Amino acid sequence: MCVKAYEDIQVVVFKLDNDEYCVPVSQAREIQTYTIPTRIPNTPEFVEGVINLRGQIIPILDLKKRFKSGATDINIATRVIIIDMDGELIGIIVDTVSEVLKISSSRFEIPPEAVKTSINSNYISSIGKIDGRLIIMVDLAKVLNDEEKEQLKN
Asked: What percent of the chain has pLDDT over 70?
């Protein structure tokens, strides 16, 4: 996500293991408690299945598996963030959702090549420094490639 200099943005902050991540509120439709998805054969390993959300079938992705950092340990705090990705809704499984923040985009920077995180840097759009914390902005446009998006539509 590109943001203009010094524009205030709202983000949903969530955790995967001990790292904090965020996605723009403008792309987050809702936050659900975790329910076991129905498994679909012949889908990538990180696709946990689908859920029926008020009559709409939503594919559910395990973000940890996508980032190649293991699988999410499901517990009472586990949440699914329903995301609008190019007009299609998908759910991403996260360990916990901690807060919604309004932050100046000036606090976010493009990560330097040397930054080491537990995920592939291709999925990072920027890193924010907020009250002594580092929060990684997930680049939702890169979470799925075109082939994977098409596969999930079908």
From this structure: 88
